[in-house]
Write a structure and sequence with these properties.
By secondary structure, the chain is α/β, with parallel strands linked by helices. It is built from 16 helices and 14 strands. Bound molecules: iron/sulfur cluster (SF4).
């Protein structure tokens, strides 16, 4: 049997610099690190050049500049990076840049990004209330976010996302409603609404362990999630992934690729790649390691691991996992592999089956981990 050839992939470029470290953040980002920017960009471009064979004769459908804070880069830095990848980007590719509203983006800077091909900007807001922003260690207020969104929009970058968070210590449902109400008045097309995850080694974790703050009870967080969902749907946002909502046609193509387990190539410190769907590459996870030229790690996935990942990621999507796509990739039907294991979830109404396609019900979304545990 000839399985489907890989014709679709995304590029991810990591920028590790941040002006300050947020209290909850365990992303690969470092404050006081901008002095390494020139060297970092040079190594990043070297990495792209040395891996040309991985994407020769292919065009990326999406390019994602994540961070850290990519907008700490100058236009000349973006220009150099784009020169290294320009022959490998599809003309219709979605090109996204993450931005922190703390940095005021000038119209000139935004026009420069647009001229380089940037079509989407994703701003991290998290919450509207100053007390919550302070607790999270964010250095901006809602006005900064509003100004940034309007600045991007008036430059002609209309595909704008705002990240918001729920489950923050001391956050009330009214706080969340106020945040959402204020965001949906802005000219934005997408809202990511994530539950706070308290990560080891963060200041927030320390504060929680020391009793300075406590997390809202899980039941209250679930009510927050449903409140957000209801408000966003009422206001024309489609709930297309567990934590993501978009106006029609503005789903994040790059993340959709990840959830559909399309290959992606990541460049820069801590960047991960999924090569040919069966090999994972992990770049050095520390800035010092990357700058010293530490070798990446490779992991070959078994067919079982590939299939499980496909289901695990695909179930995050409201549309679920299509049997035809699954069969084209792995040569077997979903239910032939997972039918028995899915039975309890189907009986409990957590998973729906339609012509062999599988998707979580709303209740299933809520306790997704229970469904996934049954599949292991
Ligand atoms: S701006 Fe983003 S990447 Fe930087 S420290 Fe804050 S959460 Fe982490």
């Amino acid at each position: 049997m000839v399985l489907q050839k890989v014709s679709n992939f995304g590029l991810y470029i990591h920028t590790p610099f941040c002006l300050s470290k947020c209290n909850y953040c365990d992303f690969p980002s470092w404050e006081n690190s901008l002095q390494y920017k020139e060297e970092y960009i040079r190594l990043l471009i070297d990495e792209i050049a040395s891996r040309q064979a991985e994407f020769a004769c292919k065009k990326a459908q999406s390019v994602y500049f994540g961070g850290g804070t990519p907008t700490l880069l100058e236009l000349a830095d973006f220009d150099n990076i784009f020169s290294a990848i320009e022959n490998s980007i599809d003309t219709d590719a979605e090109i996204s840049v993450e931005a922190n509203p703390t940095l005021s983006l000038t119209p000139e800077y935004l026009r420069g990004l647009k001229a380089l091909g940037v079509k989407r900007i994703s701003f991290g807001l998290q919450a509207k209330q100053d007390n919550l922003l302070k607790l999270l260690g964010r250095k901006h207020d809602f006005n900064k976010l509003r100004e940034s969104v309007f600045a991007a929009y008036s430059t002609g970058i209309e595909n704008i996302n705002v990240d918001i968070m729920l489950g923050i210590p001391t956050q009330s449902i009214d706080d969340l409603k106020d945040t959402i109400e204020s965001c949906i008045k802005l000219p934005i097309k997408h809202i990511s609404c994530y539950g706070l995850i308290v990560e080891e080694g963060t200041l927030l974790k320390q504060n929680i362990d020391n009793g300075v703050y406590s997390l809202p009870p899980p039941e209250y967080e679930r009510r927050m999630y449903y409140t957000a969902r209801e408000m966003l749907i009422e206001n024309g946002f489609e709930h297309y992934e567990v934590s993501n909502f978009a106006k029609g046609g503005y789903e994040c193509a790059h993340n959709m690729g990840t959830w559909k387990r399309k290959p992606y190539l990541g460049f820069g410190v801590a960047a991960a790649s999924l090569i040919d769907r069966n090999t994972r590459r992990q770049n050095s996870t520390t800035l010092s390691g990357y700058l010293k030229g530490e070798k990446p790690k490779y992991e070959k996935l078994s067919l079982e691991e590939e299939m499980f990942e496909h289901i695990m990621l695909g179930l995050r999507l409201f549309e679920g996992v299509k049997d035809k796509e699954f069969f084209n990739l792995y040569g077997v039907h979903i239910l032939d592999v997972y039918g028995d294991k899915l039975k309890p979830s189907i009986e409990k109404g957590l998973v729906n089956i339609t012509n062999g396609d599988i998707a979580l019900s709303l209740k299933g979304f809520d306790i997704m981990n229970t469904v996934l545990l049954d599949l292991i």
